[in-house]
Amino acid sequence: MSKKIALISGITGQDGSYLAEFLLEKDYEVHGIVRRASVFNTQRIDHLLDRNGFFLHHGDLCDSSNVGRLIREISPSEVYNLGAQSHVQVSFEVPEYTAQVDGIGTIILLDAIKAHNPKIKFYQASTSELYGKVLETPQSETTPFYPRSPYAAAKLYAYWITKNYREAYDIYACNGILFNHESPRRGETFVTKKITKAVANIYKGNQKFLSLGNLDSKRDWGYAKDYVEMMWLMLQQETADDFVVATGKTYTVRQFVEYAFDEVNISVEWKGIGVDEKGYNKETGEIIVEINPKYFRPTEVDLLLGDPTKAKEKLGWVSKTSLEELVKMMVRYDLKYDTYGGNDK
Ligand code: NDP
Ligand code: GDR
Question: Which residues does the UniProt record annotate as the domain NAD(P)-binding (predicted)?
C-alpha cells in the first residue's frame, strides 16, 4: 500500500512539531507549510529535517494561490490545519489579521480541498476558547459557544465552516475542540511557559520576579504530545465528527505558579488583593511574583473545564499526563535548556 501523505499548516508551532513526529512514526510522508521569516523559525522541527519523507514548503494561510497550489501538488490524504495567530491577548491588537489567518485561512484550505479532491480528510484546530463566557461546566460538544476575543470569534467561523463543508460537500472534516495543552515547546508568551521559564531563571539567579496578569482564571491544562494523537484518531474513523479533548480537571493560574515554584523548592506566600497582590518567597521574604495590569484582557475567559467523555467512549482516548507531571517536565526542561528546540523527549 502506498504511504499516506499529510499536509500540516502550523508545522513550526508547538502542536505541529509533535504531530509531525507522531505521523513520521506512523510512516506517513509529512509535508509542512512554513512562513518566510527574517530569522530561523524552525527550531521545533530542526531535528526532523533529515528524516526521510519530511518536506517543508514556503506558504501562508492568507495566500489562496499558494495554498491551492500546495494542495494540488502535494495531493495529501489528510490535511491538519494548525496554523493560526494563536495568542488570545494579541488578537485584541491585531483583530483583522487574526480573522484573516484563523478564519479566512480555514475556508481557503477547505475550498482548495473541495476544488482539488473532496476525498481529502481535514482536521480543524478548534478551541475551548469558543466557550468563552461560562454558560455550563464541564464544557462538552453540546455546550453553547460564547466567544470572548477576536481570536475566539475567528475560530468560531472556522468551526462552523468546517462543519458546513462536511454537511454541504460530504468532505470528511472534523473539529478537535482542544482545551489548553502545554509542553516544553510551548511558545514563551503563553502563561505556563512564561511561568516555568521564569521559575528556572529566578532559581538560577538570572531574574528577580515574574510579572503576570489574572491569577484567578482557571484552565484545563493537558500535555500537547498526548493531544496530537487525538487529531490523528479523529481522521481514522468511519465518519467525521467533532470532539472535545481535555483532561477533565481545572486549576487556577495561581496554582500553576505554586506548583512550578515547588519544583525548585520555593514556597510562595500571597499577600494583597487584585492588582496589588504579590507572591513572596516564604523563606527569604523576597517578591517573586508581581501583577502587571498590561497582561489583563479586555474580556477574559474565567473558567475552562472540559468533558472528554465522548473522546473516551468513541475513540478510547484519555489524557495521560497530570498537571503535576506537566509542570515538572516543563520546569526541568527550562532549568536545562534556554530554547524550545525539538529534542525534549
Ligand atoms: P503556535 O502558536 O505554537 O503555532 C502556530 C503555528 O501557526 C506556527 O507554526 C505559525 O508559524 C503558524 N502560522 C501563524 N500564522 C500563519 C499564517 N498566516 N500562515 C501559515 N501559518 C501560520 O500554536 P499551537 O501549536 O499551540 O496551536 C496549534 C493550533 O491549535 C492553533 O491553531 C491554535 O489556535 C490551536 N489551539 C491551540 C491550543 C493550545 O492550547 N496550544 C488549544 C486549542 C487550539 P510561525 O512559527 O511562523 O509563527
Ligand atoms: P489562553 O492561554 O488565552 O487560554 O489561550 P494563555 O496561556 O495565554 O492564558 C491563560 C490564562 O492565563 C492568564 N494570564 C496570562 N496569560 C498570558 N499569556 N500572560 C500572562 O502574563 C498572564 N497572566 C495571567 C490569561 O489571562 C488567561 O486567563 C491558549 C492558546 O493556546 C489558544 O491558542 C488556545 O486556543 C487556548 O489556549 C485553548
Answer: 7-330
